[in-house]
Amino acid sequence: MFDRTAAIQQAMELFWDRGYEGTTFDDLIGAMKLSPSSFYHEFGSKERLYREAADYYLNMSTSYLRGFSSHRDTRAAFEALIEEAAAFFTNDASPAGCMISLAGTHLPPHLRSVADYTKSLRKLFEQALARRLRKGVSDGDLPAETNIKELAAYFDTIFRGLAVRARDGASRKQLLAICRVAMRAWPSRPPDSNHKTDHKGRPRGVIS
Questions:
Q1: Parent domain of 190
Q2: Are 135 and 197 members of one domain?
Q3: pLDDT band at 203 (very low <50, low <70, confident <90, very high)
Q4: Each residue of 3-36: pLDDT tens digit?
Q5: Could you give the CA distance from residue 72 to residue 81 in angstroms, rounded to a whole number?
């Protein structure tokens, strides 16, 4: 019996590893063990399958990045996000890097819809970062004058850059070193913050 979820996962891994254009129709039907007619009946087109695979990737990858939503402290949440990304991007069980960062970027004009869809997914991620930062300002974790848009764009850029470095062969240890440097851009807490800090004035339990 045809397992549609398993087929989408196989397609996801191909797109993730080879990119949209680098993944051929023959690659897809070969991995899923479908005839051309069965493929079109089930998925309609390569692009529609790509969109389903990208959505599957987002749901799957989100489960690996739990720290972002579980930490009450905003800095700890962002620190967990990029550290967990470093581990996820270098996981030997899957292609290196991030599918959304790498699979649908350099595409010719006739594939503009694929590029735009992938771009929209990256934009959603940046918007999620901005929402968490706004909550941090509201909670008193960040100064009221924090430029939310710029800081969200900064961490999105760090996230995408880690994906490229991982694809180029960087190890988890090397990515974590980049994460430590990236966190130096974190805005100082308000002077009247009630959050617990260590002897250096940093939130307890986080790296600098």
A1: 65-208
A2: yes
A3: very low
A4: 999 999 999 999 999 999 999 999 999 999 999 9
A5: 13
